[in-house]
Structure formats: C-alpha cells, structure tokens
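Q: Here's a chain of 279 amino acids. Please give me its 3D structure as tokens.
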Amino acid sequence: MRRLLLLVSLLALPLLGGCAHNYYNLPQEVVANKVRVVGVVPMIVDAESDIRFPQREELLNLLVSMNRTFERDLLRMVKNTNSFYAVTMLDLDPKATFSELLFRRERRDDAAVQYNKYFWKEEALGSLIRKNSLDAVMLVVVSGVTRPDKISSSNLLDALETDYNYLIMTAQIVDAKGAIVWEYPNFRQRSISYTPLLNLQYPDFDEARANMSAKPQVKFKTIEGVRRALEKRRLDLLRRETSEVELYSSQFEAMTSLMKVDGDLRKRSSAEPVQPGKE
C-alpha cells in the first residue's frame, strides 16, 4: 500500500510543479483577475534592427508576408492555452502601430541570451488598450541581432566560432501602464532556453577545404534559401508534410508553453469582462 501511495505521489509531482510555476511578472492571481481580455497586434518586423542581409528590402518584404501568413496560428495557440477569457487579433497596420507605440529598443544580453527588448509609449499604449476594451496587448516582433555562436560542418569534423547575423522573435504582453506582464524570451524558466528564428549566415567549409584555407568564409544565405527555410513544413510520423511550418510553429510553441495560467484561478476570477470592441 505504501509503495502504491509513493508511486501516485511521484506521478503527481510533475503536474503539481507545472501548475505551481509562474512565468508571468505578476502573481498568477493578479493575471487571472486583471489580464482577462488580450488583443494581439499583427506581427511586427523591426526594420531598424540589426539585419545585415545584402538583399535587405527583399528580406523585410518576405518577413512581412510570412508574418501575415502564420500569425493566425499564433492567435489560435494563445487561445488554446485557456489562460485568458478572450483573445482577439486587432485590425491594425503593424508597421504604423509599431512606429506609434515604440519608445525605445535595447540590445540586451541577459543570462547569456542576446535579444532586442522593446519599451513602449505609455500614453499611446493606454489609448490603444482603452479604445479596444482590452486589459493588455500582445506584441510579437521579428528583428535582427548579431551574436556569437559555434556552427559545425555537416560531417561534424569542422566548426567555426564567430559572430553570426540571426533573425529572432520576441514577444511581450503589456498592460495600459506599459508594465510587462509576460515576455519571451522568458527569464522565469527554471532552465533558461531561447532559440533564434533563423541564422541568416553559414560558414562555407566546402570552399575552405577546396582552397586549403584554414578558416572558412562566413556567407549570407540567398533570399530563396531563407524563403525555403521559413516555408519548410513539418513532417508527420509517416514523413508526410503537414500544414505546420517548422520555424514559426516552434517559436509559437515555445512562447505559448510559458503562458499557462492556473485553471482554478481563472475559474475563480470575477464576472465576465466587456468584450473587445463593445462599449
């Protein structure tokens, strides 16, 4: 009997731990009661960030197109966390909204994670939230950052450690006072992890080997190579293509896995809030 009780206790520990851990910058009780209706701003491309790609304008246009194609998947996944009473995609121009809301960006290196952190104009943000009858907005930004990394060759015999130019995806849920309720990368994880969206560069080991060079050149991928990488579909167990794209879906899953609010707290929250867009 004691062995059975011990086994049940051990099986319950991961569930208890998952419920107890809070990835928000506020107590979950506050989130459950105060952050109930969230508006998702259409995904933003930060054109002024550190994107060094030679065909820069083509890349920016490609990213805008990709964002429009896949942002509804993010909306669905945020809704499926059941962490909020209502989640809606706002009918906004992401470029204009970014310009209106942005106060400043900072290139950060926190806990060995290199990323761009954004700060917003409180008055403009509050106006947007009140106009749409929201408690908070979610802002997701695709930007560029150059950071050190070690890339290995396909045969794993060679590697080059240097700076590479990456595309990254960051996200925040922000309230009307500009307070960051939740963010990604998330530094409330027990073990901090953050994967960039895509490396725009690669070391050309084959060329170095052919020319008997000790150090390979770092080259940018082609615009078509970037497009193919962003459009690459996931495979199912039978190696068939699914409707999900690998890179965007992985980012969305990483975000939403850190957004869970305790279901009991959500159930105990107060009366139904005003729906977005209703007076």
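Q: Can you summarize the key feature?
A: The longest strand covers residues 136-152.
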